[in-house]
Amino acid sequence: MRRAILALGSTIAGIAVLLSFKTHGIAAAGAPAAAPSTPSGSGSPAAPAGAADAAGAAATPSAAGQAKAAPAGRTVTGRVAETARGPVQVELTLAGQRITRVTMLQRTDDGPLSNQIDATAIPKLISETLTAQSAHIDAVSGASYTSEGYIQSLQSALDKARAQ
Question: In this structure, which long-range contacts are made by residues 78-82, counting pairs with CB atoms below 8 Å and at least 24 apart in sequence?
Fold first, then answer.
């Protein structure tokens, strides 16, 4: 009888903990300043390299409105980082030495799961970049290849910006 009461109490406590768990991924993905997109805005997985939007989603509205709101400044393109799931390449817009925008020119494209992972990971990576103003950012859990390629391309773009 005592074991049954302990098991029931533990189960109730576990369910209460699970129900009180809150994720933070949705807020980061919806941040407007952290999700700029490329001018083409198609975002289709089969589209050319420059067509992937910053959110990495396959179905996003046209980016024409966001392209007009882009801050003025110089742009620097990072090198293409080859990952096990495909190439990753970023382009930075800088005002002086400050990163004002990050655009994904290429992203991993290894099927629907890759697209889903990128849709979550890329906005987080961009947000962290804009906050840190460097390539010293944390990788996104569950998006190792995307994170690794993003950070490599980001660092190469920052190196080019410093050399100019």
Answer: 78/152, 78/153, 78/154, 78/155, 78/156, 78/157, 78/158, 78/160, 79/152, 79/153, 79/156, 79/157, 80/106, 80/153, 81/148, 81/149, 81/150, 81/152, 81/153, 81/156, 82/149
- Decide which of 136 and 43 is more confident: 136
What is the radius of gyration, based on Cα positions, of the chain?
19
Q: What pTM value is reported for the model? A: 0.58
Domains, the chain, ranges and CATH?
26-163 (3.90.1010.20)
Rounded mean pLDDT of 135-148?
A: 92
